[in-house]
Write a structure and sequence with these properties.
The complex is a heterodimer. Chain A is α/β, with parallel strands linked by helices. Chain A has four domains: 146 residues, Alpha-Beta Plaits (2-Layer Sandwich); 112 residues, no CATH class; 158 residues, FAD/NAD(P)-binding domain, CATH 3.50.50.60; 144 residues, FAD/NAD(P)-binding domain (3-Layer(bba) Sandwich), CATH 3.50.50. In chain A, 28% of the residues lie in helices and 19% in strands. Chain A has 22 helices and 23 strands. Chain A has a five-stranded parallel β-sheet with strand order 3-2-1-4-15, covered by helices on one side. In chain A, strands 6-13-7-8-9 form a five-stranded parallel β-sheet. Chain A has a three-stranded antiparallel β-sheet with strand order 10-11-12, with no helix packed on it. In chain A, strand 11 and strand 12 form a beta hairpin. Chain A is globular. The C terminus of chain A is likely disordered. By secondary structure, chain B is of the alpha/beta class. Chain B has a single domain, classed as Rossmann fold (3-Layer(aba) Sandwich), CATH 3.40.50. Chain B is 30% helix and 19% strand. Chain B is built from twelve helices and 13 strands. In chain B, the strands form three sheets. In chain B, strands 2-1-3-4-8-7-13-9 form an eight-stranded mixed β-sheet, sandwiched between helices. In chain B, a hairpin with a 5-residue loop joins strand 5 and strand 6. In chain B, helix 6 runs antiparallel to helix 9. Classes of the chains: A alpha/beta, B alpha/beta. Bound molecules: flavin-adenine dinucleotide, thiamine diphosphate (TPP), iron/sulfur cluster (3 copies) and magnesium ion. Magnesium ion (MG) binds next to helix 4 and strand 5 of chain B.
Chain lengths: 606, 351
């Protein structure tokens, strides 16, 4: 048989290869074992599902309601049909049905004599505390406000995230022994550095809402900065708003502002977008939720000026925009086609947040870039001064909760190594376990049959009931029955198809049976070339090809396009020689406690 | 075997044919054969064939006898007609069905046991009549269904799973077909769909009896070392002699026909088979040359494959017997069943 340039067989010993197949887990910043917890929910083991979640993301109850869910757009199911598995809301039911008193928290090691200061009690600092407290660290948290949770509490409205849920999950961490000081803004980094902590973690967020410097901006007190306004609503300083409200911006903050306005008495809320829908920053589901509440979203209106009449805000003038797009759908140019004035009583500016560190003196060896964002190592989270670490929105600008949590995990590893005089860049690599899921001839340790069910919507409070009070949680969460249906949509992407080439007799059985035509036996070639001659088009370059070594009988190679495999196990069932096997992939992601450090040698001083 | 049905999920990029169907619409029930059986690959090649030929499933009749191979019509084209006959009697049933309705596409699937032992006479007569059908023999050298006894196609010297050596000379289905006057004779291998699918397409389009003898290993009883019908042995002795391309009526032929090694044969519906020879001596339109070539190379233990012989000119059963063109089902009752008086008229002729 003629051989072309032979491709290298895929290196499946690198955990990244199989990890990438588990689309949701790969996309999750904290690499939560999503299929693992979904299977536990399927078995009715809600507490175990909670526990598995907590190991990676710390806040299953919180994130099960408000996570930005990068996992869902990545979900394999959305490549098979249009909607992903309701990964996020399944997390919530695990939390809803878990008795928080039964949650197993790690044992706390005896004090190791190391003191860590955290600036801010947001999710980043809390995640750090979660990892360091069990190792014997003294974690001191300074928080400017009188309560914990950062933006999760002050900005995410209570109709999406009830305060009790925050109390429970934050309480678990503080209960492990964090020393938290409320009403304690850190006003000088210099002073803090002098206090002799072994390391400092800055988790102070990106607290400055962006302003819109247009004519009339300062001529009315009815023009609000979104995140400040939401905070004053959360603190019950603001209890009402005018009937007609314009929200400027169309990100997630804008969605919270418009929905909050509806609950404070406004009846006519318009979200004003400069660009067309394809350019909106808000997640699809946040847009859906707002539109369901009859918020009007107006596109192609660019703010020009505030209209003040008789000293009162009367409305806003917008330029009407038209955009010229290139073939890839990007904006090439824009034209103003006219102007319009939209009357209103209040305007809320929700156009983004900036970092602000007025309390960090610029002569302390901590460098910032031109946007006032600190210079931070993306792996170790250390700033330019040794012993000072950054995480959450403070590190690289506004992101979301799950990123802040992951930053906390990574910074914890760095701080643990730093405090023991070890090289913080010399970190444990990712590992994996693969275990055969075969239980019998046609029995697998997972539910391998494909369920064609459509995504189940989460039950919600009726529209007519929602606005009676600010804190009525809109989503009711899945019932166990609904969750039991939704879990079956998961394609078990962690059940890997593992191939042993020297067993293959090239009978084609696997290729013939595969319902989505993932498999091909063909002459070897380069990956680009191989992609053109597979059983079905393999156009998703994000997904790898599993390329075997030469098969024993003909020297051809087995190729699997991972893109659309539904993990039905039929290839493994039809293979007469067990050359294909289904194996459960478990990612071993190192955390601070896994790093074996030597006895403490470094005495003190950050 | 598998208990689970193949999931309904399909690859979003899966192509559709002129009828708007995907290959998956030509599937059948889930196979109950052993995992890895060559017969399943043949089934899959048939699915591909029907899909690519744009044949409406309800215009196909699948016929078979008894054996693992004969079970396979249940595993493709669920929407087609089917008849599972007594052991070895499929050719008669096919002849009967074909004689009353020539408009369907007839696919017979048989085994080496079903065709070369108990049904041997049946096969010969169907060939002799040139019944217009595709006749597939899934040839594994054993009676798979009855647990692996040597069949009439087992080679001298091949061993059974437990070591017993076969001493009886084999019946070669292709040589037999050539002798019986078969108008389309091919051999292929279940493990080579690139060769098999064009052959199946040509065979199904050929007007007359198209026999394709497909080496189709039995993973359970005849895939061991010492077997001459295993995957490994077949690959080691594989000898593609004639490369076959099937060109549907509308398509241009891109192969240059001046090439001395290339022969193009037009089939009755305007499609073409383009045959590329790997051996200059060979003439796939000359029965004697085909016979001699096959015999010589088979003696040398080579598995000669490809479209070995084709004769598109010989009249089929309907033409020879001047059978009415219309399927009987389309003829009105009175014409089909004339009154008693008509019978008497005929009988009077013999009085
Ligand atoms: C309106 C809105 C809605 C959002 N919705 C979502 C959502 O649904 N899902 C999601 O994942 N993310 C959401 N986010 C983003 C998310 O809230 C943040 O990314 C996340 O809270 C960042 O966490 P953090 O710990 O870095 O900082 P923060 O949560 O901002 O916490 C920082 C804490 O530090 C304190 N602090 C600041 N400076 C000092 C100082 N000098 N001394 C002492 N304390 C100080 C602050 O008071 C605060 O408590 C939303 C953000 C906004 C604005
Ligand atoms: C009249 C009759 N005789 C014998 C049998 C037993 N029998 C069943 S299948 C079979 C042989 C099948 O061999 P083959 O056609 O090669 O099919 P395979 O299973 O190998 O595909 C025999 C002898 C039978 N079913 N009916
Ligand atoms: S598990 Fe095997 S048969 Fe099923 S979709 Fe994946 S590759 Fe295809
Ligand atoms: S079913 Fe098994 S032996 Fe057959 S081709 Fe696939 S991997 Fe190879
Ligand atoms: S016994 Fe042999 S012929 Fe029958 S299904 Fe199993 S492998 Fe195929
Ligand atoms: Mg047989």
């Amino acid at each position: 048989m003629q051989k072309k340039t032979v491709s290298q067989p895929t290196d499946t010993t690198n955990p990244d290869y199989y990890h990438r197949v588990v689309d949701c887990q790969w996309a999750c910043p904290a690499h939560t074992d999503v299929p693992g917890y979904i299977r536990l929910i399927a078995q009715g083991e809600y507490s175990d599902a909670y526990q598995l979640n907590r190991h990676s993301n710390i806040f299953p109850g919180i994130l099960g309601r408000v996570c930005d869910r990068p996992c869902e757009p990545a979900c394999r199911r959305s490549r098979i049909e249009d909607k992903p598995v309701a990964i996020c809301r399944l997390k919530r039911i695990a939390a809803d049905l878990t008795d928080m008193n039964d949650v197993q928290l790690p044992e706390i090691a005896p004090a190791n004599g190391k003191r860590i200061a955290c600036v801010g009690a947001g999710c980043a600092s809390l995640a750090l505390a979660n990892d360091l407290l069990p190792l014997g660290y003294e974690v001191v948290i300074f928080e400017a406000l009188d309560r914990s949770g950062g933006l999760m509490r002050t900005n995410i409205p209570s109709f999406r995230l009830p305060p009790e849920v925050l109390d429970q999950e934050i309480g678990m961490i503080i209960g492990m022994g964090a020393d938290i000081h409320f009403d304690h803004p850190v006003e000088s980094m210099k002073t803090l550095l002098e206090e002799g902590y072994d390391a400092i973690f800055v988790g102070s967020g990106a607290p400055k809402g962006k302003n819109l410097e247009l004519p009339g901006r300062y001529d009315s007190d009815r023009i609000h900065i979104g995140i400040d306004w939401l905070e004053s609503v959360a603190f019950e300083h603001t209890e009402s708003i005018g009937e007609r409200v314009l929200i400027i911006g169309v990100g997630n903050t804008a969605m919270d502002c418009c929905r909050t306005s509806l609950r404070l008495g406004s009846t006519d809320v318009k979200v004003m977008a400069r660009k067309p829908r394809a350019f909106f920053k808000a997640s699809d589901w946040e847009l859906e939720d707002a539109e369901e509440e009859n918020v009007e979203i107006i596109v192609n209106h660019s703010p020009k000026a505030f209209v003040i009449e008789d000293g009162k805000l009367a409305g806003m003038i917008f330029e009407l925009m038209e955009y010229q797009l290139d073939s890839a759908g990007r904006i090439e140019s824009s034209t103003v086609t006219g102007e319009t004035m939209i009357p209103c009583d209040d305007v809320v500016l929700a156009i983004g947040q900036d970092n602000a560190f007025p309390w960090i003196e610029r002569d302390q060896g901590i460098e910032f870039d031109q946007w006032e964002v600190p210079v931070v190592d993306p792996v170790t989270h250390q700033g330019t001064r040794a012993g000072v670490f950054f995480g959450g929105d403070a590190a690289f600008g506004p992101k979301n909760i799950i990123w802040a949590v992951e930053h906390g995990h990574q910074a914890a590893i760095s701080i643990h190594k730093y405090c023991h005089g070890e090289d913080i860049t010399d970190r444990l690599p990712m590992g994996m376990n693969l275990n055969s899921a075969k239980m019998g001839i046609h029995e697998w340790s997972f539910s391998n049959s494909y369920d064609s069910g459509k995504r189940i919507p989460v039950p919600q409070v009726q529209l007519s009931e929602r606005f009676k009070q600010l804190n009525i949680e809109v989503e009711l969460g899945f019932s166990p029955e609904l969750a039991a249906e939704e879990v079956e949509r998961c394609l078990n992407c962690d059940l890997q198809t593992v191939f042993t080439e020297n067993l293959c007799i090239e009978c084609d059985a696997c290729i013939d049976v595969c319902p989505v035509k993932c498999l091909t036996i063909t002459e070897a070639g380069t990956e680009d070339d191989l992609r053109t001659r597979l059983s079905a088009p393999a156009e998703n370059l994000e997904q790898g090809l599993l390329i075997s070594g030469a098969l024993p009988q003909t020297g051809r190679v087995m190729i699997k396009d991972e893109d659309l495999c539904v993990h039905c196990s039929l290839c493994a069932e039809r293979c007469p020689t067990a050359a294909w096997d289904m194996q459960k992939f478990t990612l071993l992601k190192p955390c601070a406690g896994d790093e074996s450090v030597s006895e403490p040698i470094r005495q003190s001083g950050a | 075997m598998t208990y689970m049905r193949r999931p309904s999920v399909v690859h979003p990029g899966l192509p559709h044919n002129d009828l708007g169907l995907s290959a998956r619409d030509y599937e059948g029930g889930i196979s109950t054969l052993c995992a890895g059986c060559g017969h399943d690959s043949v089934t899959s090649a048939l699915v591909q064939t029907l899909f690519e030929l744009n044949i409406p499933p309800h215009r196909v009749a699948k016929l078979s006898g008894i054996g693992c191979s004969s079970k396979t019509p249940a595993y493709f084209a669920s929407a087609s007609h089917g008849f599972n006959s007594v052991h070895g009697r499929m050719p008669s049933v096919a002849t009967g069905a074909n004689s009353v309705n020539r408009d369907l596409h007839y696919i017979g699937v048989s085994g080496d046991g079903d065709s070369l032992s108990i049904g041997f006479g049946q096969l010969c007569h169907a060939i002799r009549r040139n019944v217009n059908m595709l006749y597939v023999i899934d040839n594994n050298g054993v009676y798979g269904l009855t647990k692996g006894q040597f069949s009439a196609s087992a080679d001298v010297g091949t061993t059974a799973k437990k070591g017993e050596v076969n001493i009886q000379p084999p019946i070669d289905a292709c040589l037999t077909a050539l002798t019986m006057g078969c108008t389309f004779v091919a051999r292929s291998f279940s493990g080579d769909k690139q060769q098999l699918v064009p052959l199946l397409k040509a065979g199904l389009t050929h007007k007359g009896f198209a026999l394709i003898d497909i080496v189709s290993p039995c993973v359970t009883f005849n895939d061991h070392l010492g077997s001459t019908k295993s995957y490994d042995f077949t690959r080691q002795h594989y000898h593609p002699t004639i490369h076959t391309d099937f060109i549907p009526p509308a398509e241009e032929i891109t192969v240059s026909s001046e090439d001395g090694d290339t022969i193009s044969v037009e089939l009755h519906d305007g499609s073409r088979v383009v045959l590329k020879k790997t051996d200059e001596q060979y003439d796939p339109t000359d029965r004697n040359s085909a016979y001699a070539y096959l015999q010589k190379h088979t003696a040398a233990q080579e598995v000669v494959t490809g479209l070995l012989f084709i004769d598109e000119a010989k009249p089929d059963m309907h033409e020879t017997h001047m059978v009415v063109e219309q399927p009987l089902i389309d003829i009105d009752f009175d014409t089909l069943c004339p009154r008693r008086s008509a019978l008497e008229k005929i009988q009077n002729r013999f009085r």
